[in-house]
Design goal:
Order of helices and strands: HHHEE
Largest sheet: 2 strands, antiparallel
Distance between the termini: 81 Å
Number of strands: 2
Strand order of the largest sheet: 1-2
Radius of gyration: 27 Å
Number of domains: 2
Shape: flat
Length: 118
């Protein structure tokens, strides 16, 4: 019985080996690729924000920007629908989540369903 207990206390090395140099290099490459993809995404977001209303872009950029605008509107519509299903809505002025049907926002005090123009 003692032999069995000693085996339980011994560290298990089954399937747990230090990664080889090739595996470490491959893991580093995968990590760098992921960081590059994050930067491409960040760059694309920055380009979109800076140029979403720029009419002097090449047509190929305009097409993608218009598609992103449509997708964003769809996303916002689904989000508003989700909020309604939960019994909430978003204040158009400050973005606070408030009970559905509220006339005024409890955070900013403005009419909840009308966006004020500056």
């Amino acid at each position: 019985m003692a032999n069995f207990m000693d085996k339980l206390k011994a560290p298990l090395n089954i399937g747990h080996q230090e990664p080889t140099e090739i595996e470490r290099v491959q893991q580093n490459m995968i990590q760098i690729e992921a960081e590059i993809q994050q930067k491409f995404t960040q760059l694309g977001s920055m380009f979109y924000r800076d140029n979403m209303n720029n009419d002097n872009l090449e047509e190929s950029y305009k097409e993608v920007i218009e598609l992103v605008k449509k997708l964003d509107e769809n996303r916002k519509s689904f989000y508003a629908h989700k909020l309604r299903l939960e019994g909430n809505m978003m204040c158009m002025n400050c973005g606070e989540i408030i009970p559905y049907g509220s006339v005024y926002c409890s955070k900013c005090g403005k009419r909840a369903n009308e966006k004020e123009t500056p």
